[in-house]
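agent> fetching stored inputs for the uridine-diphosphate-N-acetylglucosamine docking request
agent> found them:
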Amino acid sequence: MAEEVIIARETPVLKGTVRVAGAKNSALKLIAAAILGQGETTLRNVPLISDIDIMSEVLERLGARVVRNGHELLVDTSQVDSFETPYELVTKMRASISVLGPLVGRFGQARVAMPGGCQIGARNIDMHLVGMEELGVEFSVDHGNLVATTPKGLHGGNILLDFPSVGATENTMMAACVAEGTTTIDNAAREPEIEDLANMLNAMGAKVQGAGTSTITIEGVLLESMHPCVHTTVGDRIEAGTYLTGGALLGGPVTVEGINPTFLRMALTKLEAFGCTVETGEDSITVSRTQPLRATDIQTLPYPGFPTDLQAQFMLLAALAKGSSIVTENVFENRFMFAAEIARMGADINIEEHHAVVTGVERLQGAPVESTDLRAGAALVLAGLAAEGETIVRHIEHIDRGYEDYVGKLASLGADIERAALESLN
Ligand code: UD1
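agent> prediction call returned; pasting tokens
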């Protein structure tokens, strides 16, 4: 199939209103949680993105029936009879690991392929395992698969996470729902998506309290008492933040609807520091800017700190601001791939370990660039709209993972943008 690219051309202003989809990072876990419901769960406000297709496939491979009807997803887990997640799906999407907790809860065992280079004790899932071990889960490795068993059943435990990991909090919380006794998770992640998941689990019969704070308490219930439910996915704060960055970059006013403004408090504070005007409604946010962008330091932290998933977009603002900004990445290692690509467009960025010193330039120049990951890709497209001339963004499959109709929504704000087959450009 011909490779598709996004062509972004210099756009004088972005303005108008877009409605954000449901949160990718919530919907993925809600689909996994449906395993515990053992019947027909209906999820609403599910984004039309490729990561959701992969998670649907993960569930189908376990024996579930998944039917999409627009933004509604029916997940029937009554016939789930397998607890094994194959390698080709896990490597496609790290979030596949979120079936581990629900599978252990439902079957007392799970077999999930480990992404390449991943081993027990490896940093990227160690906290998931430590959390579940506290609930009585034993882990071993068999031919590249992580094998979970519960020889003495699942029981409550007191867990203190090393770091408020989103995935570890969610997996442990889902398994603990059907453990015997009470579980506490301290230093839990507080992201709005965790609260969304807890709300769904409670609607399914679980007893989860404190989600959205650093201490989550789960009183275990019998698996038989868990049931399916109808749940609406919370709005995507990262998608909202991305369009707001576009408004900040190109003047606005840009309004995003379908998002609770408190989810973006830190990002909105930073937009104001960059020189923007921000107005919030109950379910909407508007950004506009009439003065030059001012240099502003950013440091990513777990929620409610500044989200790492908006780091690239805000680095773009810094790249065009007056003065120097320091962007510090505290959540993920090696998450400055965007800096290398935007440098091709004329940005002045120096990286020292997990700090980037960004000195604003007057203009960026259009160039061929590659989206190296989801958020970097989204930010490169915005950069292309702000830059002189034409920017061709390749590897847009990364963008399709997490943004529903990114090109269409930006075009509706006035962006000069299109998707095209790469071959047709040569
Ligand atoms: C989720 C989000 C991702 C977001 C991130 C942080 C999904 C599908 N993805 O990812 O978009 O950027 O939260 O807000 O929801 N870590 C360990 N050991 C573990 C778990 C994590 O060392 O057992 C490390 C990771 O390598 C990373 C940091 O902790 O450096 C944060 O990871 P975590 O909060 O777990 O993020 P994810 O759930 O993977």
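agent> quick read of the result: DSSP finds 14 helices and 24 strands in the chain.
agent> awaiting further instructions
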